[in-house]
Amino acid sequence: MLGEAIIKGMAVTAKNFVGSYVSKDRLPTVQYPEERQTLSEAVRSFPFLVYDGDDWQKGLRCVSCQICEKECPPKCIYIVKSKDKKPDYLGKPQLYPAVFDIDLSVCMSCGICAEVCPFESIMMDQEFELSTTDRFGGLLVHKEQLAKSHQYHLKIRPSEAGPIERRRAQAAAKAKAAAESKATERREPASGLLPPTAGET
Ligand code: SF4
Ligand code: SF4
């Protein structure tokens, strides 16, 4: 019938229009900023740096390998390696970024930095309310602004962060057990080396 598709389309529109007065599910918009939609895990805005524990400086996972800096297509990451080292989550000494800046006015949210990082240190955030009147300084973010806890990562992206957390917790427990067994060996010499008892002399 001529115009059948138009009539069907209008019927759907009318159903949603009337339905939006009685059912929230039929409302495609929200009263932003008073109301917020729950974001899907797949939403990504700009990168952030993950840290373990409570102290971002001690717990920063980044080892300053600069892979993300090299791979970033528009070259908006700037890193300067530290001269000294700090212990990582396994207690091994690691380099850290003395400077880690990202120019968000250039970042295109591609997520390549997060994909190439071998240390699970840089992840994509969901924070998007970053507008500023300071076009240059306001959008050049430093490591102290980029650092966010591993719990935050777990909250916004549980299916990505969950396996990472489990793997790191297992590695940390293994390293702790190995260190404890080494310390015990040092305290108790091997039985063959024990000094002879009084009856044996
Ligand atoms: S998201 Fe893409 S453009 Fe932005 S810093 Fe990472 S690699 Fe660079
Ligand atoms: S964020 Fe990852 S890839 Fe980038 S410098 Fe740090 S450890 Fe290397």
Main attributes?
alpha+beta; 7 helices; 201 residues; Alpha-Beta Plaits; 8 strands
Brief characterization of the structure:
The chain is α+β, with helices and mostly antiparallel strands. The protein is 35% helix and 14% strand.
As a whole number of angstroms, the C-alpha radius of gyration is 27 Å
Strand content: 5-15%
Poorly predicted sequence stretches spanning 5 or more consecutive residues? none
Order of helices and strands: HEHHEEEEHEEHEHH
| Strand element count | 8
CATH 2nd-level architecture of the domain at 47-182: 2-Layer Sandwich
End-to-end Cα distance, whole Å, is: 113 Å
Please state the average pLDDT score. 90
Question: What strand order characterises the main sheet?
Answer: 6-1-8
Q: Can you tell me the CATH topology of the domain at 47-182?
A: Alpha-Beta Plaits
Number of helices: 7
Q: CATH first level of the domain at 47-182: which class? A: Alpha Beta
Q: What's the story with the biggest beta sheet?
A: 3 strands, mixed
Cα shape: elongated
Which range best describes the helical content: under 10%, 10-25%, 25-40%, 40-55%, 55-70% or over 70%? 25-40%
What class, by secondary structure content? alpha+beta
Q: Which small-molecule species are bound to the chains here?
A: iron/sulfur cluster
